[in-house]
């Protein structure tokens, strides 16, 4: 099989893998569709708010795991040479898995926001940045209570890191695409933040107003 055909099939496989939504898969076993509850999003945060921490943990493990698996498959089975060598293909497959999570073919193209799946790809392909991203995410979350804002700021930190750490072009492209995807999927959260109507995750917020 030609190298380019192999690469395209692997990217398609990553998209289909990403389309397996953790919350919707586990929700079928429980008899619920969390897209009809809470914020209507099929992600880990809404799963936690509507179904509890055990359900949410399963969701996160599946969603992060499929991003990690897609990236690993790219490294393992990607061609050594050609227009998309394995190192580059793996990033493309991590993005494809995130796209599948956001617009899952198995679930009517209504999925989550892609952060967990992107994180899975980062854990395999660029683990050195995780110690930078995690404090940003945790810090913003515990001081503001805004999960969406924490996710946006953490992922967009990939952009300055990509240039500051002087990485290759594949990682820089991944950083740009990941940031663009997360900004797009969180556009509603950002609009509500500007309007002052975004909901907070009060249980983890440190600076709560005492009444």
Spatial extent as radius of gyration: 17 Å
Strand content: under 5%
Give average pLDDT, whole number.
90
The share of residues in helices is 55-70%
Shape, per Cα inertia axes: globular
Specify the structural class.
Answer: mainly alpha
The total count of strands amounts to: 0
Helix count, DSSP H or I runs of 4 or more residues: 11
Distance between the termini: 67 Å
Low-confidence blocks of residues? none
Number of domains: 2
Major β-sheet, in short?
none
Q: In sequence order, what are the helices and strands, one letter per element?
A: HHHHHHHHHHH
What attributes does this structure have?
mainly alpha, globular, 211 residues, 2 domains
Can you give a write-up of this model?
The chain has 211 residues and is mainly α. The protein has two domains: 1-125, no CATH class; 127-211, no CATH class. It has eleven helices and no strands. It has helices at residues 3-18, 22-30, 44-51, 53-77, 86-102, 115-125, 130-144, 147-156, 158-164, 169-185, 187-195. Helix 4 runs antiparallel to helix 5 (86-102) and helix 8 packs antiparallel against helix 10 (169-185). The protein is globular. It starts with a helix and ends in a 16-residue tail after the last helix. The model has no long low-confidence stretch (mean pLDDT 90).
């Amino acid at each position: 099989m030609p190298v380019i055909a192999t690469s395209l099939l692997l990217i398609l496989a990553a998209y289909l893998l990403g389309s397996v939504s953790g919350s919707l898969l586990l929700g079928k076993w429980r008899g619920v569709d969390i897209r009809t509850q809470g914020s209507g999003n099929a992600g880990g945060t809404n799963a936690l708010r509507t179904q509890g921490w055990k359900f949410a943990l399963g969701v996160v493990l599946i969603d992060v795991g499929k991003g990690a698996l897609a990236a690993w498959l790219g490294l393992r089975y990607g061609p050594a040479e050609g227009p998309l060598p394995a190192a580059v293909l793996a990033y493309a497959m991590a993005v494809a898995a995130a796209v599948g999570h956001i617009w899952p073919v198995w679930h009517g193209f209504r999925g989550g926001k892609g952060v967990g799946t992107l994180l899975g790809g980062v854990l395999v392909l660029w683990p050195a940045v995780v110690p930078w991203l995690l404090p940003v995410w945790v810090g913003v979350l515990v001081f503001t209570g805004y999960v969406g804002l924490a996710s946006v700021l953490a992922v967009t930190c990939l952009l300055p890191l990509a240039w500051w750490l002087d990485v290759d072009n594949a990682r820089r492209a991944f950083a740009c695409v990941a940031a663009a995807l997360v900004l797009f999927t969180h556009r509603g959260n950002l609009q509500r933040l500007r309007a002052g109507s975004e909901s907070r995750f009060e249980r983890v917020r440190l600076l709560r107003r005492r009444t």
